Each structure stands twice: as C-alpha cells, then as structure tokens.
Amino acid sequence: MGKFARSWALAKASMSVLRSDKELLVFPLLSVLAVMLVAATFLLPLFGLGALDGAQRGDSVPPLFYLWAFAFYLVQYFVVFFFTTALVGAAMVRLDGGDPTVGTGLRIAAGKWVSILGYAAIAATVGMILRGIEQRAGIVGRIVAGFVGVAWTLATFLTVPVLVAQDVGPVEAVKESATLLKRTWGEGLIGNGGIGLVGGLVMATVMIVGAALVVFLVQAGLGGLAVAVGVCALLAFVGIALVQSALGGIYSAALYRYAVAGDAPAGFDGVLLRDAFQRKA
Prior knowledge:
2% strand; single chain; mainly alpha
C-alpha cells in the first residue's frame, strides 16, 4: 500500500504536467503507430513466405534469420526511443517553465537521432543476447535473463533524459544514467513503485470489469451491446496505456532533474522522488 500511495502521488504530479501540455499524448500515439508499421513491415513478409515455420519446429535457423531479427530489434527500438526522446525533451521544457509543442519535442529528437540510433543498437544487442539465453538455457536461462533484464532496465532508466539534456553519445549516456542512479539513490537499487504500478492496476481493472460485463451481456442475449461494451473497454485500455506512457516520460524527466539538481521540479514532492528507488535489504 505504501508503494501504491507513493506511485499514486507521483502519477498525480505527472498528470498535472500532462494537463498543462496535452500535446505530450501525441508522442506515445505516434510511437504505437510507428511500432505497428515496423512490425507489419518485418513480420508479414515472413509469415507470407512461411519463414518462421522452421524456427517453430526447432529446425536449424539460417544466419540471415538472426540478421533479420537484429534489424527488427534495431528499428523497433529506434522508433520507441525516438518518440520517447521527443516526449522527455518536451516534458523537460515544461518543467523548466517553457511551453513546448509537438514540434518542439520532434526537433529535440531529430537533433539526437544519431545517439538514439546508437542506443537502439546497444539495446537491440542486449535484447538479442537475453533472448538467446532464455531459449538455450531453459528455466535457468529465463531466471538469469530476468535478473539481467531488470538490472539493465534500472541502469538505463535515465538514459533518454541524459541524451536529451547532455551532448553525449549512447555509451556515455548509459554510463551517466547508471552513475546518476548510484550517486543519488545508492548501490543495489530495486524498484519502489512508479507510474507503471498505477497504470497497470487501472488497466487490469478496466479489462476485468469490461470482460465481466461482456460475458454478462452475452449470457443475457444482448450481443450487440456486448460488442459495444467490448469496444469501449478496448479503447479505454488503449487510452490509459497512452496516458501511462506520457506520464512515464514526464516522471523520468522529473527524476533526472532531481538527480542532477538535488531538488524537485515544480509540482513534485522531493521526498517522493527520493524514495523512487530503494536499496536491497
């Protein structure tokens, strides 16, 4: 409950920024559309050619398949990081008292595209390695990959804000992210709640309630109304996901400001930001 209370307070603080700049919702929407386009571009031809059948049967996979997989990871990560950079950049302008637009965020991301591509290449490499460990080492591999994945997520939590605020390359940004986290919150970090906790609970509630209503209406013979309720629940789920993504970008920008300056941006509680992470017991 303590984690949820802190997460809820941080979500409200981030929401106040989002209410001031509703344009920030455009960035996660563009990211989702771009990711869908990337997935269609890479996956549909493979399904059409039956190229995935051999991999599903456990047959040997040709080297070109791994090159394709890496290219898919690379482009997908680049798209996600590009729009996340635009979101965080616009959020930082707002936290500094400015009035950003969608164009403001896109210009910030466009000016960092080389570093974003480099960071995407690093993330794609890490993703491929972790995927390989999961597939080749069974349950032990999944456990190891899970721990490494969590450590990587924590270490790179502030990488995008670093790329936005500093003129550094992707490797330096990852190192600076880890350094800021260690210097501000100490060694042996673990997550202590956040925007994702609130968003996850809200989305789960929407889906459970929506599914229950659909089942009830179908059993009552109201199929048309059940479809309408299902569509509304799906749209609500997507809308909450977009808001959660925007709040996450604002939250990471606020955490970066706190880690660098030592005080909380306007509208945020310094105690909550200080407790964003905690040490392992």
